[in-house]
Write a structure and sequence with these properties.
This protein has eight helices and two strands. It has helices at about 5-25, 30-55, 60-85, 100-115, 125-145, 155-170, 190-205, 210-225, and strands at about 120-125, 175-180. It has a two-stranded antiparallel ribbon with strand order 1-2. Helix 3 packs antiparallel against helix 4 (about 100-115). The longest helix has 28 residues, at about 60-85.
């Protein structure tokens, strides 16, 4: 019986991703982001539960990737699609560029399953981080008030379109990125992780929702600056 518990938690992640996608297509971005975060919590606990119960299976591994692509690939793609669709664009195909994110997220997950180098860190941007970046950005842009004194909404549309290929590249890149995994709780050897956690809390406190996107951007920059290729 206990071997099915992690798979049940993974299915909760998948359901959360489906709900997030529904809200995304309804342009209810805050709710969509909330369910992406809920999915991320389930994603964390399914792996932890499997380790605690000492159970794992090929089905669980495949199910986890499928759930992750819904929650961290398709749901944020739907948010970007709805955001782009809210503008009066003469080319009706442009919003569909958002779904490239879902495709590259699936490729990222497939590579992760086969890559034995990612036991202690990541090669490329993890899909949950990418989803949180897009979720925080789209929720913030939907309020508009914080950037209107500085930029027109149309300018942000072009920035979002430019960020799509950058996001996709980071997902499947060979850029090494650190993981928040601790072998011990001491300072030595964990300096970068503790600095990242403290600075992330500061960014979110100062910037609010857009701080989530800033944290992911900071994570990428800090990884590039501190992590060496194996």
């Amino acid at each position: 019986m206990k071997k099915h518990i992690p798979n049940a938690i993974t299915c909760c992640n998948l359901v959360a991703g489906c709900i997030a996608t529904y809200f995304a297509f309804e342009s209810q971005y805050s709710e969509a982001l909330l369910f992406i975060v809920i999915g991320a919590v389930f994603d964390f606990f399914d792996g932890m539960t499997a380790r605690l119960l000492h159970v794992s299976s090929p089905i669980g591994k495949e199910l986890d990737s499928l759930a992750d692509d819904i929650t961290f690939g398709f749901a944020p793609s739907a948010m970007v699609f709805s955001f782009i669709s809210s503008f009066h664009i003469h080319q009706p195909w442009v919003p569909f560029l958002a779904f490239i994110i879902a495709a590259f997220s699936a490729l990222r997950l497939a590579k992760f399953n086969l890559d034995e180098r990612q036991a202690l860190g990541f090669i490329g941007l993890p899909t949950p981080a990418n989803a949180l970046f897009w979720g925080g950005l789209i929720v913030s842009l939907n309020f508009k008030t914080w950037f209107e004194p500085y930029m027109l909404p149309e300018h942000w549309l072009y920035i979002v379109l430019a960020l799509i290929p950058i996001s996709c590249y980071l997902l499947v890149s060979e850029v090494p990125m650190f993981a928040l995994k601790f072998k011990h709780w001491g300072w030595k050897g964990n300096e970068v992780k503790y600095m990242f956690i403290a600075s992330s809390a500061l960014l979110i406190t100062l910037l609010g929702i857009i701080g989530i996107s800033a944290v992911i951007a900071w994570y990428v920059l800090l990884s590039v600056a501190t992590t060496k290729k194996s």
